[in-house]
């Protein structure tokens, strides 16, 4: 993986560490099976969150939607936004579809069995833990990571909460422009 997962980053540095990412099999909002192979050939912005997140989650999805819009409208660059739920018990395909439509219909949603979500989160080094609340209502503590994947589905950059929309779209554009056409 190139770049850093926190901080605004030293663009020129390359960090070699444990492999992040890997194969997955999940379900999209139309109940179709989706694997990493379905996304190959595209730049992908991957975010791990959940639809009942009270504040940070919606802000991150909004940031993702706006960054994608800036890249497409101003730079003519297509990046596929994908939201992976870390709360598959509550985030059914239809719940994900309704939630993401509120932000941008281009954002794809993925869910699946809890074991598949846990495995993917582990492969992508995404932390999440259910925090018990009242009855069936609970929150999830998570790392709120966003990943830029290249057309080979390899992680190029990881973005944390400290990026605003402009910084996010600019950093994505910089990474895409580093790759020879």
TrEMBL record:
GO cellular component: mitochondrion
A Pfam family hit: SCO1-SenC
Family statement: Belongs to the SCO1/2 family.
Taxonomic superkingdom: Eukaryota
CDD domains found in the cross-reference section: SCO
Protein name: Uncharacterized protein
Coiled coil: none
InterPro entries, per database record: SCO1/SenC (IPR003782), Thioredoxin-like_sf (IPR036249)
């Amino acid at each position: 993986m190139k770049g850093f997962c926190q901080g605004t980053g030293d663009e020129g540095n390359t960090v070699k560490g444990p492999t992040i990412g890997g194969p997955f099999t999940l379900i999209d909002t139309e109940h179709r099976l989706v694997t990493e192979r379905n996304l190959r050939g595209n730049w992908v912005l991957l975010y791990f969150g959940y639809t009942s997140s009270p504040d940070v989650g919606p802000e991150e999805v909004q940031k993702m939607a706006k960054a994608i819009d800036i890249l497409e409208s101003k730079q003519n660059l297509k990046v596929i936004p994908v939201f992976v739920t870390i709360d598959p018990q509550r985030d059914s395909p239809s719940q994900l579809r309704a939630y993401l439509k509120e932000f941008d219909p281009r954002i794809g949603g993925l869910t699946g069995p809890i074991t598949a979500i846990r495995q993917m989160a582990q492969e992508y080094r995404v932390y999440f833990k259910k925090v018990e609340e009242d009855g069936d209502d609970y929150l999830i503590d998570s790392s709120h990571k966003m990943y830029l994947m290249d057309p080979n589905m390899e992680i190029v950059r990881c973005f944390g909460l400290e990026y605003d929309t402009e910084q996010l779209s600019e950093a994505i554009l910089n990474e895409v422009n580093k790759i020879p056409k």
